[in-house]
Predict the structure.
Amino acid sequence: MFVLLKEGISEAQLKEVVDSAEAAGAAEVCVTKTGTRPMLRVRGGSSQQQTRFERLPGVERVLQTDGPWVLAGRTFQPENSIVHVGRAAFGSQRVEIVGGPCAVESLDQLREVAESVARSGARVLRGGAFKPRTSPYAFQGLGERGLELLRTVADEFGLAVVTEVMAPEQAELVARYADMLQIGSRSVQNFPLLEAAARTGKPVMLKRGMMSEIDELLASAEYILLRGNAQVVLCERGLRGFDRQTRNVLDVVAVPLLKLLTHLPVIVDPSHATGRSELVIPAALAAVAAGADGLLVEVHEHPEAALSDGRQALNAAEFADLIAKAAAVATAVSRSA
Ligand code: PEP
Ligand code: MN
């Protein structure tokens, strides 16, 4: 049972509601926030209890539900959420573009890319410091040194930083340097990690797993929302298919579907979705046409020399081309980029 509290509820009123929940023998009482409104989740709850809650002065509405995700849905919050990350506003009218290398490799590499990213008008820099690699022999990232480089270089160019956190015990460290924490596809159901990321209070970009159902993705987002962190951005990055020509299969319809189901912003990663630089721009344009709130794109000044994912990286000129074309498509669907 979810109890939606009135905006501006007083401390005394809140205490009254929480006390009634506890008196009703609720096994779990959890106050969280979606948008600006506090909510109370009460485990169980009979229809008599529902009526009792509805009569309390601080309560606006009570919903009986046992679905896997509620806070992520539009029942309590019909309007779109906007997640602010530096100067970027995910979920706003503007299609926000995040650009940067797969992995932070060196100061010079990052500075070169960041300069192109900033020059082309993007507002957020990406780059992995902790890299989830299939093989333990592959480049694993620079770790904390990579985080330092991201912060220094992003500040130099007035960009915000998004970077991946792989383990719950890394969350505080990554949050000291990043403006948004990325939960990678392989971690989408690492529930302790979701909770640790939520607790940092920083916005969280949650990537859909290569095998995630939409309901599973939303249930993972629910873990973060239920911990009181409402700043979640979802990212579609392709599903594993049978055809080896592309790395993954971009589920472009996931974008309008998610926008129907959830108030959370939805962005698309056309780089991991395709795995081939020549397919990144068409995939990105399809995503913007489908209503994506943003794009996450891998960029490298010298893709052939990249330590990871060079095959799918755009160079600076291609990235500038992507932004110009995305802006044209955004205009066609009454957005801007
Ligand atoms: C990434 O964006 O750096 C990444 C590893 O992507 P994914 O988790 O989608 O594979
Ligand atoms: Mn990558």
In short: The two ends are 40 Å apart (CA to CA). Residues 102, 272, 298, 308-309 surround manganese (II) ion (ligand 2) (CB under 6 Å).
